[in-house]
Write a sequence for this structure.
């Protein structure tokens, strides 16, 4: 069955959790003539593109994958043509700065649209996400000369972008990076190899702009000595000293070429410094945080797609008997409905969390009051690890549910359901594993200010008004109260690596379940709410929120059981 964009759900989430009216009233957007009708039109058009152009390539791309040829890496059949339609429609420029050719629309709208790319064709959507992240990093940290030369073609989609961090000996340990940069007049020459480079080489665009972490000659060891460089695949129409050595054979996202990239095998890859020397980690985090939101959206999109596929089958497949003795569709069985409701509620909850984070980005960038901008930036920082990891973990579980609803047929590749699970499995791993996200949440984002930003979030949730889902709101209040009891322990003990490492994942998941119910209750209280929104929030409160309490029990245990096992004990 084809993917159908959940337009009504997206609009309701934009309204309730994306603070749509507040964002559209910001000075940066108020003069654009964009209102709710225009927002709806954009989402509907994106849905048509996702359904008619991207979704038909999802299965074929998975079967065919990208190909390494003597001329370079070639995308799966149909992808290049789809990409040309994508840029002709102006989708890459949606939220890009108008000063460099973008449309300058709100980040929350780009989030609603980006979910549809992930849902209809995650492998294709990855390429566009990386370009957006590259745009934002270059716009924030690049010199005027670099921006004038490279931003416009990235924004138009003529060029695509990549993020080059990991190396064979380093992985997530960026301090171990050995790619080096040597001065070359006004530019630099880079030498080294990078792995796991998504869309590192392909034939869909005329050029690829690599943002590369490397160590300039003479810089100190560790992450403090890393700098960020812009290294294009082509310079003035001629190949730069950059090439794809191989493409990984992966469990999922097979149509997305994950490349091993060689820089400088033939004298040095020419590149330019982005931002100050030895400030590479700080500058790259601009792109990394954008990508972490994008990865969370991949989880949302895959859950939506898997839910639609499972629901369609459950409504048609006849198996067993009803209580009255008639033939039953499998959706008539309560356990199947339970799984479908878990899929639907976690999809909607995760969508709401992503929209909260996106609203924080818009407010941090464009609100006229510096106090509000700072608070929004802090809120966005707090939400980033949650919005990456909670949908990621949920997507693996819910795409597994989709296979379970289909039963034995779900385990058969020809039905296409297994692809969602295979694609989802990377989401908890890349852009910083979920364990890294959890350590960031508990060890930096929560403890660095004594828990002040986290408590402000609890205050906001506690102040929620509305009575559409009273059972859910009562459960929400009870969990907020429990988190207020737990937070002092997290703040005092979270600076200790042994404690944080043992319980951080549970703290993140409890926070995710809390925010998920908050999002669902806000949906239920919104003027655009449907009657089933309150029922969905109630289901989530009764069936899923108890998991948050279990996670908090682990947090309070202090991680002693983990500490009892040394590495030598295994």
């Amino acid at each position: 069955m084809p993917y159908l964009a959940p337009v009504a759900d997206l609009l309701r989430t934009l309204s309730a959790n994306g603070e749509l009216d507040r964002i559209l009233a910001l000075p940066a957007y108020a003069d654009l003539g964009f209102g709710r009708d225009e927002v709806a039109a954009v989402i509907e058009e994106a849905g048509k593109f996702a359904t008619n152009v991207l979704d038909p390539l999802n299965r074929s791309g998975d079967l065919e994958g990208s190909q390494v040829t003597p001329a370079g890496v070639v995308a799966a059949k149909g992808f290049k043509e789809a990409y040309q339609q994508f840029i002709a429609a102006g989708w890459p420029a949606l939220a890009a700065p108008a000063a460099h050719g973008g449309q300058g629309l709100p980040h929350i709208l780009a989030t609603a649209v980006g979910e549809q790319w992930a849902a209809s064709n995650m492998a294709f959507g990855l390429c566009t996400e990386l370009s957006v992240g590259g745009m934002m990093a270059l716009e924030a940290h690049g010199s005027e000369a670099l921006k004038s030369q490279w931003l416009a073609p990235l924004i138009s989609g003529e060029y695509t972008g990549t993020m080059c961090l990991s190396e064979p000996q380093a992985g997530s340990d960026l301090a171990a990076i050995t790619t080096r940069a040597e001065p070359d007049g006004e530019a630099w020459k880079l030498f080294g190899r990078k792995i796991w480079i998504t869309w590192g080489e392909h034939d869909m665009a005329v050029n690829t702009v690599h943002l590369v972490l490397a160590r300039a000659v003479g810089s100190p060891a560790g992450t403090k000595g890393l700098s960020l460089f812009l290294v294009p695949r082509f310079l003035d129409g001629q190949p730069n000293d950059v090439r794809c050595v191989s493409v990984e054979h992966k469990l999922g996202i097979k149509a997305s070429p994950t490349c091993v990239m060689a820089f400088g095998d033939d004298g040095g890859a020419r590149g330019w410094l982005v931002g100050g020397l030895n400030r590479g980690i700080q500058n790259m985090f601009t792109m990394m945080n954008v990508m972490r939101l994008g990865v969370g959206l991949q989880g949302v999109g895959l859950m939506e797609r898997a839910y639609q596929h499972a629901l369609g089958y459950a409504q048609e497949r006849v198996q067993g008997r009803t209580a009255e003795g008639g033939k039953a569709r499998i959706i008539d069985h309560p356990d199947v409905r339970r799984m479908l409701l878990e899929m639907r509620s976690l999809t909607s909850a995760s969508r709401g969390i992503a929209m909260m984070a996106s609203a924080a980005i818009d407010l941090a960038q464009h609100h006229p009051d510096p106090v509000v901008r700072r608070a929004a930036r802090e809120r966005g920082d707090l939400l980033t690890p949650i919005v990456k990891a909670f949908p990621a973990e949920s997507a693996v579980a819910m795409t597994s549910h989709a296979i379970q609803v289909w039963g034995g047929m779900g385990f058969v590749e020809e039905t296409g359901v297994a692809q969602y699970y295979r694609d989802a499995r990377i989401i908890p791993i890349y852009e910083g594993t979920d364990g890294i996200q959890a350590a960031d949440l508990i060890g930096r984002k929560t403890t660095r200010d004594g828990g002040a930003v986290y408590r402000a979030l609890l205050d906001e949730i506690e102040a929620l008004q509305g009575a559409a889902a009273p059972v859910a709101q009562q459960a929400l209040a009870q969990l907020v109260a429990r988190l207020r009891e737990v937070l002092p322990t997290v703040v005092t003990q979270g600076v200790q690596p042994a404690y944080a490492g043992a319980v951080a994942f549970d703290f993140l998941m409890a926070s995710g379940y809390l925010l998920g119910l908050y999002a669902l209750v806000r949906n239920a209280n919104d003027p655009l709410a449907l009657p089933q929104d309150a029922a969905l929030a109630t289901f989530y409160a009764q069936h899923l929120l108890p998991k948050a309490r279990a996670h908090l029990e682990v947090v309070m245990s202090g991680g002693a059981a983990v500490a009892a096992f040394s590495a030598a004990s295994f």
Notes: The longest strand covers residues 187-198. The first helix runs from residue 7 to 16.
